[in-house]
Write a structure and sequence with these properties.
The protein folds into two domains: about 140 residues, Response regulator (Rossmann fold); about 190 residues, Hypothetical protein af1432 (Orthogonal Bundle). The chain is about 60% helix and about 5% strand. The chain contains 14 helices and five strands. Helix 3 links the parallel strand 3 and strand 4.
């Protein structure tokens, strides 16, 4: 409960006798009171040291009470201060106008002390309750956000763990998931700085692609071991089965998406999982779409995935050198890959090499 000694009231009235009376009776109740004969003078003080409540006359020279109240309500710092109009104007039109300007109450002159005290006490309690409610709601919102973050991180960890199942089944892929995640992060950060993708790739987009990138091969959990773990090159028929990992992954994430339709992380994970093997020239899979019809996140993952696949050793091939991998991707500019993303890759190619070497050392 508040104490009157902690409450600061402001009285604005051009008639000195009214100021003196109000200041005297309010001070007798223990309130801190400041009084002003003009609206412009009061506003200067209000913006420097906002009071808890204002008693405001209407008929004043230079600036009437309606304008004073309007300026208070137009300023974010003072808009929540309760304003009680106290005026000799007793007609309905002015009372309604006072309330429309943002006043919380209206006292007609001549006033009764008990009425003034009762109105002030009521609106101070309401204002205090409103502030407490806002603080509570802010705290509640923070708690909700914390819980959402906890749930979100838990979901991410679960999905990434599921994605790792495929990698652990194939011990030749090393730290492919971690490396491609880092490649995507670098590409997205770079592309966010330049046209034409600077308006698309926001900080939230960058965060989503970083968390969603590990999901791109989640569909490999549905590929038979005899194909996934085959030590030699796949036959055409086996490769067709391997290609279905994009659709299987999209189906897995599609079930989750039905429950979390607005989750940007899940939505991006589904897109890059399904379409990261599409090609700029339309000769990719599973749908053979081309150019901008391929989701941007999938176009980014395509470059990251191919670079890492080229560099990685397999039982049926040696890993490419960094220089040879860069050459292959450069030659596929405008064929397999979005030219803007290839341009970003070339600018970042030394960082790609560092990422590969760092994770490769950790794996061994």
């Amino acid at each position: 409960m508040y104490s009157n000694q902690d409450i600061r009231l402001m009285v604005i009235d051009d008639i000195s006798a009214n100021l003196e009376i109000l200041e005297e009776i309010l001070s007798s109740k223990g309130y801190q009171v400041s009084s002003f004969p003009r609206g412009d003078m009061a506003l200067s003080s209000v913006f420097q040291n906002p009071p808890d409540l204002i008693l405001l006359d209407i008929m004043m020279p230079h600036m009437d009470g309606f304008e004073v109240c309007q300026r208070l309500k137009d300023n974010e710092c003072t808009s929540d201060i309760p304003v009680i109009f106290i005026s000799a104007l007793d007609d309905t039109e002015n009372k309604v106008k006072a309330l429309l300007k943002g006043g919380v109450d209206y006292i007609s002159k001549p006033f009764q002390e008990e009425e003034v005290f009762a109105r002030i006490d009521t609106h101070l309690k309401l204002s205090s309750a409103k502030k407490k409610l806002e603080e509570y709601n802010l705290h509640l919102e923070e708690l909700v956000q914390e819980k959402v973050q906890e749930i979100s991180h838990s979901q991410v960890a679960t999905l990434v763990a599921l994605s790792n199942l495929a990698e652990y089944r194939d011990d030749t892929t090393g730290s492919h998931i971690e490396r491609t995640r880092d490649y995507c992060l670098k590409l997205a950060e770079y592309l966010s700085l330049y046209s034409p993708y600077d308006k698309i790739i926001t900080s939230s987009y960058i965060q989503d692609i970083y968390f969603a990138a590990p999901l791109h091969d989640i569909g490999k959990v549905g590929i038979p071991d005899m194909i996934l773990l085959k030590p030699s090159k796949l036959s055409p028929q086996e490769f067709e089965i391997m290609k279905t990992h994009t659709v299987i992954g999209a189906q897995i994430l599609g079930k989750i998406q039905k429950e979390y339709a607005d989750n940007s992380f899940i939505n991006m994970g589904l897109l890059l999982t399904k379409y990261h093997h599409e090609k700029w020239n339309g000769l990719g899979y599973p749908e053979g779409i081309s150019k901008e019809d391929i989701p941007l996140c999938a176009r980014i993952m395509a470059v990251a995935d191919v670079y890492d696949a080229l560099r990685s050793r397999r039982t049926y091939k040696e890993g490419y050198s960094h220089e040879d991998a860069v050459k292959v991707i450069t030659e596929e500019n405008g064929q397999s890959f979005d030219p803007y993303i290839v341009e970003a890759f070339i600018s970042l190619e030394k960082e790609f090499a560092l990422i590969f070497d760092r994770w490769n050392l950790q794996h061994f």
